Amino acid sequence: PIKTETGEITRWVGANTDIDDQKAAVQALADVNTSLETRVAERTKELMVAEEQLRQSHKMEAIGQLTGGIAHDFNNLMTGIISAISLVRRRLETGKTQDLDKLMSAASTSAQRAAALTHRLLAFSRQQSLDVRAVDIGELIQGMRFLLNQTLGEDIQVAVECPATLWAGMTDANQLESAVLSLVINARDAMPAGGQLSVTMANRTLGAGDVRPESEEEPGDYVEIAVIDTGEGMSEHTLAKAFDPFFTTKPIGQGTGLGLSMVYGFVQQSGGHVRIESEVGKGTRVALYLPRAVDSTIAGPVEDHGGRGARSGGTVLVVEDDPTVRLMVVTALNDWGYDMIQTSSAHEAIPVLRSNKQIDLLLTDVGLPSINGRQLAEIARQFRPGLRVLFMTGYAEKAAMRGQFLDAGMDLVTKPFTLDGLSEKIREVLKGGS
């Protein structure tokens, strides 16, 4: 304001600026920003949809490869079993007994191979039943030397290196033997002209910076078991598919492609991980990392009770809904001299459990309709505290069973099982060896 000497305002001086253009520019910028955010959101959504479609495509490709491989192997195995049984039946009907042992042996071999295939599939899916305990891995691998030498032959030199201070590892000893043997066989096949194979063991402590960010690896203490060969090696393409189920570079009939995937699944289920390095023309190194055992108590060798079908005495309540399996189990129990009561469901078994009949062992399938085997065991122990229970299961749930709700006096046997294996389990449970 312009004022006089007395302070009176006589006039005002000011400046006016037209901000319409500025406001329009700000609004235009806001509109562009909103449009850009919308386009980014749309593109992000499109990208997520595309990624999900790609994942589904890869999943369906893997499932197709898996089911195709399973169908191929099982068709071959079932053909052998069905054909052998058909020939045996025909010869018995005509009174011809020659070659019956050979035919039954062929059927048994095919059935055992089918059982092994299901176990490898469960290992790949990390749903097999593991007996994880502290294991002296060095002693276990050293104990395999004769088997390794026999497997590899004279053209391949074998070296086993184990430090005296090697930690015990948490693992299933039997499955670890199978995994190492599978890796050794792969190494042998990669060295058709001979070479060198090393099995080395070491203590490894992996920090946060040592684990691969794209993997499921966790920092911690591990026992490393590395199988190293001087064979043909693998290309990057082959290396990327090495753990895929039924992927194999071997000729038809010489490999199922489940070896490495089985090893991968077993180690992952044990809380460890696998690393593989390979270079064409130089060889391959596969390293298994198994968690260090916190408990220093080392598992001892499994006691061999011996004696096929030896009975421990007692009455067995059999609960199995599959009539064929039930017939085989009941027939075997009868041959072994056990007293038995057979039922096809939990509903049939409960009145027996409530009765005054003597029952020393509940032998039940897990996958029963309505009331499953585990629930039946709970009910059984309400009427008969301390009743010994042996579960039969072919389902993936058996992995959870062993780790989470096998109480004292309970054990399980995995289908498909041999009768000798069933007999041994029954004897162990009745003697309190669960």
Element-by-element helix/strand order = EEHHEHHEEHEEHHEEEHEHEHEHEH
Name the CATH homologous superfamily of the largest domain.
Histidine kinase-like ATPase, C-terminal domain
Instruction: Specify the CATH architecture of the largest domain.
Output: 2-Layer Sandwich
Low-confidence stretches: 123-127, 250-258, 300-312, 396-401
In whole angstroms, the N-to-C terminal distance is 102 Å
Class of secondary structure makeup: alpha/beta
Name of the CATH class of the largest domain: Alpha Beta
Percent of residues in beta strands?
Answer: 15-25%
**Number of helical segments?**
12
Shape: extended
Computed Rg: 33 Å
Please list the strands of the largest sheet in the order they lie side by side. Answer: 4-6-7-9-8
Main sheet, how many strands, which sense, barrel? 5 strands, mixed
Q: Structurally, how many domains make up the residues?
A: 3
Average pLDDT for all residues = 80
Q: Key terms for this structure?
A:
434 residues, alpha/beta, five-stranded parallel sheet, 46% helix, Heat Shock Protein 90, single chain, 12 helices, Rossmann fold, five-stranded mixed sheet
